[in-house]
Specification:
The complex is a heterodimer of chains A (330) and B (265). Chain A contains 15 helices and two strands. With 330 residues, chain A is mainly alpha-helical. In chain A, strands 1-2 form a two-stranded antiparallel ribbon. In chain A, helix 2 packs across helix 10, helix 3 runs antiparallel to helix 4 and helix 5 packs across helix 7. The radius of gyration of chain A is 22 Å and the shape is globular. Helix content of chain B is 34%, strand content 23%. A six-stranded mixed β-sheet of chain B has the order 6-7-8-3-9-10, sandwiched between helices. The model of chain B has no long low-confidence stretch (mean pLDDT 93). Chain B has 265 residues and is of the alpha/beta class. The chains are: A mainly alpha (330), B alpha/beta (265). Chains A and B meet through helix 8 and helix 9 of A and helix 2 and helix 3 of B. The complex binds adenosine-5'-triphosphate (ATP) and magnesium ion. The site of adenosine-5'-triphosphate has 13 residues of chain B, from strand 2 and helix 1.
Chain lengths: 330, 265
């Protein structure tokens, strides 16, 4: 059980990068970008193909990020230059990505085994080795063996890498959106007319934001592929909904009062989502039903304000006067 | 300071909705001119300001600001020359950003956005002082999201933003029309003060004839996408609402029609 939770946390942190990417478009730029369903797979595909040909896993992650930037650029150009609505632009790029991803991989699935004759080195391998070495220096006193087992588990090292990566990326993101350029992008999501009146090209801001978002998403895909030990052409399907679910869970649990808090919320939301999924799976839900479960969860979350409003109205009808204040508060 | 020469703009050309909004408009502003712009519904007042701001390209004509031909520049490229306040208080600010962040965006109007920090400590102190001059208590709410402000507060802030970096020309398009009369009067007074304190060149569209007579050193009246009446100085000061209406009928041969125009008080 501990291992399952550890795995959920590790996977959640890696998906947290993707959630942050979704946040950049969905919340900051105020567009729903479906490109991510394609670019997350592109990231996984590029990492897998590079890692299996013996290239440094971190370098492979960087290449994945670069590919994501290009994916975002394509959508941004379709939207800003060809004036295709943002949603449709994303769908077009996502669809194109499917063929490109297959081209990159050459087949539908590339395994990244950590054992066996054709094992590969991932970003997690050195940390895992280090943990084993550290623990090996101590004597396995029987009483603490379970503890050493955890430290030596793959999930634990994946979690460490996940924590490190999400912290670094969140700090960079926090810094970036405090800069002049970052402020201009945030304003673009608010009021494009005002932004142009300040001498800022909204086209350029949209391009930069979509690129960064998809760069993060592809990077996330690269880590996820290494964690789950394979890249698969299907791995992006439903990812936007997972990203949204994580984002909303985080917002509800942690809140969005400050940007710092919001960034924490994104990582926490992604982790909590994964823990929920791990729990319902452990409770016996079929893997094939997960997407339906997630979609329903997101629908409920998105309609929460409406439901709250309706409830308030019902209550106020019943309670008459007393509820007027509740309305105001709600 | 500004030359608009033979400007033409037709919307929806070639369709049943074709509308000639600017019809060979000519306008020259001297430095320091504060011009009140009046005219009936659809006369082309907003269209004139939009043509100047580069919201869309004009069909024909030249626009020259301070010797620079800006006709071919797009909207954000013209921003260095222009400060703008819109009729809709929502239009001028970024609602989800703090008051100070909005000011910081405006301070950098027309400048390249770099990876330097978006707002400095020194700026913060300056903003605090500037906001205090508005007398709206905003200096104590610098980190409040602008979306929480009232329309009048937002318009006052937008005005401050438009003039934070001195524009060559300040464009005010019925910027008090959406406010209640008391707030409108206050914002108008503030506009007048900022313009005269800084010696700005300004175009102010208004639907209030009294305001148009009272404020500025010059008044122009528009009809059918052209300027049909243009007065300055003493002659302008001596105008009355009635004489203006009379003038309009005389020149255009029709009744003055503007549903928002306040003909009396
Ligand atoms: N973007 C646009 N597309 C189509 N028609 C437009 C557009 N902008 C303005 N028009 C038309 O051009 C004409 C002039 O409009 P404009 O907004 O300049 O009038 P105005 O003088 O500002 O009037 P008002 O007092 O009503 O604000 C109107 O007939 C208007 O319908
Ligand atoms: Mg108008």
């Amino acid at each position: 059980m501990v291992n399952i939770i550890l795995g959920a946390i590790a996977l959640g942190l890696l998906w947290g990068i993707m959630t942050l990417g979704v946040h950049l478009t969905y919340r900051i730029l105020d567009v729903a970008d479906l490109t991510v369903e394609g670019t997350i797979t592109t990231g996984g595909a590029i990492a897998a193909i590079m890692i299996t040909s013996g290239i440094n896993p971190w370098l492979s992650c960087l290449a994945a990020l670069g590919a994501g930037l290009i994916g975002g650029l394509v959508t941004a150009l379709l939207h800003t230059k060809l004036k295709i609505p943002a949603l449709l632009s994303g769908i077009l790029t996502m669809t194109a990505c499917y063929s490109i991803n297959l081209r990159i991989m050459g087949k539908a699935n590339i395994p990244l085994p950590s054992t066996g004759s054709n094992k590969v080195e991932t970003v997690f391998t050195p940390v895992h080795e280090l943990m084993k070495k550290l623990v090996g220096e101590y004597d396995d006193s029987a009483s603490a063996a379970w503890f050493y087992d955890i430290i030596c588990s793959k999930n634990f090292s994946a979690m460490l890498v996940g924590i490190l990566v999400i912290i670094v990326i969140s700090v960079i993101t926090y810094w970036f959106f405090g800069t002049e350029l970052g402020c201009a992008i945030r304003a673009t999501g608010n009021n494009q007319k005002m932004v142009r009146a300040q001498g800022i090209s909204t086209t350029l801001m949209i391009i930069i934001c979509l690129m960064l978002s998809n760069g993060l998403v592809a990077l996330s895909g690269a880590f996820i592929a290494q964690y789950q030990a394979y890249a698969d052409i299907q791995m992006g399907i439903g990812s936007i909904v997972i990203g949204l679910a994580s984002l909303i869970i985080g917002e509800v649990l942690i809140g969005t009062k400050t940007f710092k808090r919001n960034l924490v919320a994104l990582a926490v939301g992604a982790v909590v989502y994964r823990i929920i999924i791990a729990l319902v799976m452990a409770a016996g839900m079929a893997a094939n039903d997960l997407k339906l479960f997630t979609a329903i969860t997101v629908t409920l979350c998105l309609s929460l304000p409406l439901i709250k409003d309706k409830l308030n109205k019902i209550v106020s009808k019943r309670n008459g006067e007393a509820a007027v204040t509740a309305e105001k508060e709600g | 300071m500004l030359k608009m020469i033979d400007i033409h703009k037709t919307f929806n050309a070639g369709t049943v909705n074709e509308k000639k909004a600017l019809n060979g408009l000519n306008l020259t502003l001297e430095k320091g001119d504060f011009v009140a712009v009046i005219g009936g519904n659809g006369a082309g007042k907003s269209t004139m300001l939009n043509a100047l701001s580069g919201v869309w390209p004009v069909d024909k004509g030249e626009i020259i600001v301070d010797g620079v031909n800006i006709t071919k520049k797009v909207e954000h490229q013209r921003a260095p020359y222009l400060g703008r306040v819109f009729q809709d208080p929502m239009m001028g600010t970024a609602a989800n950003m703090e008051i100070q962040e909005n000011l910081a965006l405006a301070l950098r109007r027309g400048q390249k956005r770099t990876l330097r920090w978006g707002i400095t400590e020194k700026e913060r102190r300056e903003y605090k002082e500037l906001l205090a001059t508005l007398d709206l208590g905003l200096e104590n709410r610098m980190t409040t999201k602008v979306g929480l402000l009232s329309g009048g507060q937002r318009q006052a802030l937008t005005l401050l933003m438009a003039t934070l970096r001195q524009p060559k020309i300040l464009l005010l398009d019925e910027h008090t029309a959406a406010l209640d009369p008391k707030t409108a009067a206050k914002v108008l007074e503030l506009s007048d003060k900022i313009i005269s304190d800084n010696g700005l060149t300004a175009l102010m569209v208004t639907h209030n004839m009294k305001d148009a007579i009272k404020h500025g050193n010059r008044l122009i009246m528009m009809n059918n996408g052209q300027i049909i009446f243009d007065v300055k100085g003493e002659e302008k000061k001596n105008l009355t609402v009635n004489s203006l209406l009379q003038k309009f009928t005389e020149i255009s041969g029709s009744e003055f029609a503007n549903d928002r125009m306040l003909l009396s008080e």
